[in-house]
Write a structure and sequence with these properties.
Layout lengths: L1 H18 L5 H12 L5 E11 L2 E14 L2 E10 L7 E7 L5 E6 L4 E5 L27 E9 L2 E9 L9 E7 L5 E7 L5 E12 L2 E11 L4 E12 L34
Antiparallel strand pairs: 1-2, 1-13, 2-3, 3-4, 4-5, 5-6, 7-8, 8-9, 9-10, 10-11, 11-12, 12-13
Length: about 270
């Protein structure tokens, strides 16, 4: 009898974790966002490569992140080629409020706040939009479809009904790895329900934490793609608060912070 009881207990212990219910969908999305957008200050170098109909273009940019009392801020500054140098995109995510985006366009010498529709315009002709280079905007319209294998990884499959203001997409499907809680793939569907874009993610362990280092956005309908590679990351770096002020975006390309990422000293205006 004791042997049978021990076998029964062993089976229960083995099977129970597998039968455990997955986290609710908002817990999954919040954990993914927290890992994808860490709060620690950091700077990184980005290389963005886009290809369309045999034509290829490459851009070099730097990115800085920092948490403020009024929310998170993220800055992307273009360094190369010269035609794009000085362009800056600043994203501010106030606590529990929608993200605000500002851009500085050197050709116009103006800082502009982007409105909802403008945030979904293409970034320098790439498959990434301005919104894609900002923060993940969470809302309440998610549904956990289930769990399945994707490229050899066990993942949560989450369906998102895009809010009305995101008029470009009818829905988005995201696969999130159950072990790392980082996204593996995201499929975007147009207003007619057709697959429009597929976004693929790769991560590496940096400073003990899994960090996205490659993002590939493929436009299925246009048959083009853009790849964003994180070349280097510097965590817990001291970043001046002024770097994240919209009114100072005109001069942010000249910040000495970027010198370690670019062999050519910033040009003076």
């Amino acid at each position: 009898m004791a042997i049978l009881l021990a076998i029964f207990i062993s089976i229960v212990i083995t099977v129970t974790p597998a039968m455990a219910a997955p986290p609710d969908v908002m817990t999954i999305m919040n954990q993914m966002k927290e890992l994808f957008e860490p709060l620690r200050p950091s700077t990184s170098k980005l290389v963005i490569t886009t290809e369309h109909k045999g034509e290829r273009a490459q851009f070099t940019a730097v990115q800085a992140r920092k948490k403020f009392p009024d929310g998170k801020r993220m800055l992307t500054v273009m360094l190369e080629p010269d035609a794009t140098r000085g362009f800056a995109l600043l994203a501010w995510e106030p606590d529990k409020k929608p993200t605000v985006l500002w851009v500085y366009m050197p050709a116009l010498r103006r800082v502009l706040e982007l409105r909802t529709v403008e945030t979904y315009e293409g970034f320098f002709g790439t498959e990434f939009t301005y919104a894609d280079l900002g923060f993940i905007a969470l809302h309440e319209r998610y549904r956990l479809v289930g769990e399945e294998e994707l490229t050899g990884r066990h993942a949560y499959k989450v369906e998102e009904q895009a809010p009305q203001e995101q008029s470009y997409y009818s829905r988005i499907i995201t696969w999130i790895a159950t072990d790392s809680m980082l996204p593996l793939q995201r499929d975007y569907f147009d207003r007619a329900g057709r697959l429009w874009k597929t976004e693929l993610f790769e991560a590496s362990v940096i400073d003990g934490a899994p960090t996205p280092v490659r993002i590939l956005m493929k436009d299925i309908q246009r048959q083009s793609s853009t790849e964003l590679n994180v070349i280097s990351v510097d965590n817990n770096v001291e970043i001046p608060d002024d770097v994240f002020k919209p009114e100072l975006l005109r001069e942010v390309v000249n910040c000495p912070l970027w010198l370690k990422y670019c062999p050519i000293p910033p040009k003076k205006k």
